User: Fold these one by one.
Assistant:
Number 1:
Amino acid sequence: MASVFGGLRVVELAQGMAGPLATGVMADHGAEVVKVEPPGGDWARVLPGFHVWNRGKRSVVLDLRATAGRAEARELAHSADVVVESLRPGRARELGLDGATLEHECPHLVHCSISGFGPATALRGFPADEGIVAAKSGRMLGTDALSGAVVADAAERPIHLAAPVASFGAAMLALEAISAALFDRARTGRGRRVATSLLEGAGAATMRLRFARDGDGLRPRDGDDLAYRGIVLTFLTVRCADGLHLQMCARQDHHFRNWMAAIGLADVLGEERYRGAPLGFRSGRDIDELRARIVDRMTTRTRAEWLATFVRADVGADPFLDPAEALAHPQMVLNDRVVVVDDPRLGPVTQVGPLVAMAETPAHIGAPAPTLGQHQDDERHRGPALLPVGGSPRPAEPGPRPLPLEGVTVVEVASFLAGPLGPTLLAELGARVVKVEPRAGDPFRRVGLEFAHLATGKESLALDLAHPEGRDVLARLVRQADVVVHNLRPGAAERLGLGYAALRRINPSLVYVQASAYGSRGPEAGRAAFHSTPHALSGGGVLQAGRGNPPVDDSYADPCAGLAVAAAVAMGLLARERWGCGQQVETTMLATAAYVHANDQVGYRGRPPPAVADAGQHGPCALRRLYRCRTGWLFLAADRPGGWEALVAALGAVDLAADRRFTTAADRGAHDPELAEELAHRLAPRSSHEWEAVLLAGGVPAAEADGPPFEEILVRHGLARPVEHEDVGPYWGLRPRVRVAGSEPRLGVPCGCGEHSDAVLAGLGYGEAERDALVAAGVVRRRSPRAAPPAVAGVAP
């Protein structure tokens, strides 16, 4: 059976999580991935997640400081279809392994660069480390009940974030971009240069970015946003009669009403002050009083009793699992998202299975991660390189090239965030995206500016799919489409004529992507889910909370699922272009969250328990932790090999180096609280700004963690652009998260509900009278055309 990347050769010059995860998914789907490691090996070899990110690869060791090593690396690159590198800024060019050099020498090559800070060149001197990026970008600031905070003073200081969303986000952006570039190469014979970064990955994987604009700056957020507080209530973490916690998930109005009825508070919603719940409360006091009543009711039954009740009542609620329990969840097992790989050193290793389930070009996972240099001799005696798939490139044409997905049409039948984000990212790479939404609009439109980012670059067709004529319109649209993406629950798609069997009869070459929550099989397949579900079930709620604290909610799981959807679509398009097959493709929010937390979900005999932050949410260990300084907070990331030695040298702490409690890594682990106390004492006398400079000069990864907030960092460093829009006013629009060399970026604006209904229908062959009849019958909603297109600063209308 064909594989998406079968027959393709990938050379990886990357360490850690981001680059190896992107190429790891490619290896799962048939690519031959050659992992180039330094003499000491990838620093992430000490992490359990290494066995997920690098399974099925080939390892060679090259010293890129030596002439012979550089020459061998270039030979490998010349033999490849894809090169992925995450070398420090400027290093790839020094080695002749940068995209511009290799594009000239190998026009067929797809080159992907993953850096720490991407376009934020003023920050390029900081290490491309998950925690450093989170600290320096302000992502550790401003956390709350929906973003991982449990400590009381989180609003005044940074907290450690357990989910490595910057690395995961960068990996998915890279995978999407590489797949799209290979899709384009299959059509044109020419490779592409694509680039992204951990900072852009973090931006794509972060919810609740509104970016309201006040002139050239950000407009302050509302101090008491009642709609937001109502949303917090729908995602309440509650303690049950047995002391166990439940993560509630009642985001939609009818789910909230079902919840109140199930716990005996249905009559409350009849009170005048609660008629608008959950998003239409009149005062914060009303919210607080209702919250107290809910919390009191939830203590009357055990967690298991409430779960049974909520399943019957169609109320979203999930237990908080620890990472060791996550892969045993029935929905992971029944949807084939768990594999056991035999490792020659560790024995059976249980780990997350395929990120994407593809009916015609499935993943094949079997070989373990390689030992260091395992394939050295094989590669040196490989012989001449094979002709890359795609053949000889066509001559370059003058001027900018089209974006890789130009000419692709994606039909999106999805709401809220996880489903729609994927097509948004595809639009950034050139795809035409038609958003099919109810006549009342995607319910997520109520959040305003946050929705605007998801609607950017799309066309809106407001359509009643419950009406037979609405389904006829959809059928015509699908007939001309390349991709359909939906996030409807199992059964709902079929009732609306959106099932794969029905659409395949209309368009056999269709790439059909179901962005599901629990997976399409198993007893919980039909349950509703939002970000809180995969976060709780993946172990994220326990990891984020800190030792001894109750579990906490966090919202990264929705956008991370959307990132996986974008990668899945691009892979499906590539498979169709290479092997001629349309197919059914599925992602699940549970599997995606398992990939985010892959380092903590790997199971094998003797593996150390996952590292959990301290009760103050400062960090998981003394060498990866937030420290309060004389002024400001510093994030220290000295836990990689060699980090301890560099730290004691930079601190001039010869006494710490001689202290028997801290001699070896095992000693430091056994005395971690004492080491944290010692370091806190030594860092306290100087400012975080001073320590950042001292430690970076000494080769120790460190960063101030309480600078400008995340939104301001993205604006300040050019990752957002000023936009004027008649629906939402002035705001900062996010720039494309992937940069494609030789192509102009797609800078779209949000679509209004039904704004493009007439144009889409006309393109499908409906005459003016037919369009008017559909509107009159309530099948289609149209919007009056704007007097002038919205202005995007720096871009001509």
Note: The mean pLDDT is 93.
Number 2:
Amino acid sequence: MSVDKYKFVSPGVFIKEVDKSQLPAIAQQTGPVIIGRTEKGPAFRPTMVSSYDEFVKVFGEPIAGGGSSDAWREGNYSSPTYAPFAAKAYLRNNGPVTVVRLLGVADSDADGTTAALGGAGWTVPSLGDGPSDGGAYGLFMVNSSSLGDNDDTPIGVTGTLAAIWYLQNGTIALSGNTRGDATTATASNASLLESTAKHEFKVAIADSGDSNAKTYAFNFDPNSDKYIRRVFNTNPVATNTTTTNTAKQESYWLGETFEYAVNDTCTGSLQHGLILGLKNGTNQGGDFVGIDARPSESGYFIAQNLVHASGSGFEADSQPELFKVVSLDTNGDWNQRNIKISIRDLKAPKDKDVSPYGTFTLEVRKINDTDSKRQVLETYGPLDLNPNSPNYVAKVIGDRYISWNSTERRYKEYNDYPNNSQYIRVEMSENVKNSLVDKESLPFGVKGPLRFKSFTVSGSTNADNLNATSSFVSADGICNLHDGTSISTIHIGAEHTDIKFQFPGVALRTKSDVPEAYADHKKAYFGVELRQSGSSTRFDKSNVDLLRAKPGAISSFDASTTTEHMWAFTLDDLILQQDNNDKHAEYVSGSCSNSESITAISGGYQAVLDGGFTKFTTVLHGGHDGLDVTEADPFRNTLLQGKTKLNNYAYASVMRALDVISEPDELEFNLATMPGITNESLTQELADLCEDRGDALAIIDPKGGYEPIHEGAPGTYPKIGSVSDTVSNMKARDLNSSYACLYYPWVQVKAATGQLIWVPPSVVALGTMGSSESRSEVWFAPAGFNRGGLSEGSAGINVISAREKLSADDRDDLYENRVNPIASFPSEGIVIFGQKTAQIQASALDRINVRRLLIHLKKEISRISNRILFDQNVPATWNRFLGRVEPLLASVKSRFGLEDYKVILDETTTTPDLRDRNIMYAKIMLKPAKAIEFIALDFTIMRSGASFDD
């Protein structure tokens, strides 16, 4: 430190510390990038994980395929996810890996309004007039005892939507007795039909052309053999005529069912039901095309009552909006099906003059836990709404998000604070950001998810009037099962009865003391009630259906003329009750404005907090995967064949992932793979990307190998594949690059569940490269019995067998055409038996070990070069460069990566002309060490008297 830095005024001894002992930053380790489907996690955002446990936490376990008992509710587990197996293979041997999850998005240049125009998502046919049209249909239910008789004075009755079916073709109709009529309407949507028992109905479903009609008896009791989700097909994949066995095909699937609403609304011994088509104007209830993958959100958290002392004039849904919780990135619907958000420990400011802001804590919890046995995934607190505070909620949790820039074809990041949560970020209202809300404001309540508005059916209501209610229900196109005629009148059977049909909503907790018998009722979280109706503490799975994205162009987040928030919950609507010296709270919507709540009676919200009622919970909703739910594998190769990013969302989604990883300055990796994708156009894009970057090797799965059952028609698929097909495809395609490599055949591995599945060769090739690098060096060939023995664990996962046992001629054919064989030997087991790149010309770079050596050296020397950028272009700087590069190359030589090398950097390379142009030019000449791939041994038999010297 220069003495000039001291300030001398009066005599004394001046001491300062100068710390120059800091260690230089260590460059982050580079690993592969893997593109593919995963169970959960951020989509299209490259995410690095350093261990397999971390991978599972972020992206979930590998899916082995085979499906689930209820695919609609539990998600698509019909086909294997190969990317997680590849990540597992590499991470068991090495690390880290960068994962890019695929979901469904349309290309920004595509029309995207239909599937044929590149739209993401799925659809069933629009409601029409013919018997084969299909569409989305809802069962609406009402208590029979509430309907009254024809001679009664007009009464208002409330019913509910109970279930939704999605028909690819054909018709659906209720079967049973009409109201007030003992005769049976065997199949009708024109009448209210009576249930056969409590919540039990019959439905007739027919295929296109009124064929194969079948009647189903069902109810809404999960413990019954007739439970609706056991009786009907709940797997959309079964309706895919391309990939499903004809004997197992269905013309429909059962989508949403609302057991809680049925039990809560229809409490009588018998009910009447009505099936109506789901439609509003041009918006079809079964049209989810055009919805790109997107994250789920909560409603806005709202402030407490700070204005209406007596409660009069207070409206919860008009309270200032503070912030909302949004799932991270484009992660689809997993969060809304698995987590919920709680606010607890609400505290008013202690001294408004000193610190006018209150505090609170935010929890991320598992959606199916209970308040008495919480499963908290993340906790943040104490938090506040002060933008200048270190506890500001956006600063602590994070508010950053990414948005796709279609012009630059890359994601751009927005907002101020980095995200610290694995699951969520917050989105602040502009008024909070700009300190325009009352500083005392706390998140005292929250707005609920959206639902469609209710509609009323009268005894003489016809189709036109029914549509005029602006509900999401239409009588247009509701087809009589037997003659296909369009129904124009709904037969109610009681002229004076008005039935108000509601769309279900997530329930709210009404009491702090039930169903859990708390000794201290302050432990209860108000807000959403996600348990089954009655005294059960079990999670009600119908909540998952209530949180789904809305169809078509209907917003899932902003209320409109056809939608409304399910509720606007607030702690200001708590009423204090006392039973035998036992105080507890009850939630009654509107009680504050009626001057009945704790807030209204006490003249302020503080009394609610003083009573210990400081907790409530809400849900996330509206997220969407953007995938075709009728596909076992939404990215199957037969679906991608012949497509472009403009006419196929799956193709566009893979291209989006490739765009995301294309910029070397934004993402570093040394290997890249898309396990299971054999589409030659897309694999060429990956190879070209790696070559353009010049710093990574693409591991490609060749076309012509094994094709799983989800690729096409049963009986035709699975296809075993063959060497001849693979070789023919390689000869026909224009792939010539030292930045790509291919392997054959597929191999069988054992999943964590014990299930045996076939995985593409890129999975084990990637794992083997990880283990080879870990055991030796990146420039050693990842092949042979020492480093490529799959049976001996080189792949990182348990390899059982190869899809095809290759002969010597097979191996020769593959290797001659730049495909590396995975061979099987009786004694040595399964082994990777080649290490060629896809380069046609014979050179050192037609081998993987040399290409990976060059990638490694270019990266390391680039890092050295970065350290002298903008330094003086003089011999002293050149010597600094040489002083770091030559030891690096010497080290690689000593570790058998190079036979020899030479570096020239002097005035013969960096001439005066180049210096005038601010250029330093060095020549680096390398002789890579080659791997032994062929061993020739001559065994010469000599006569007894011969001399070995001859």
Note: Residues 663 and 883 are 30 Å apart (CA to CA).
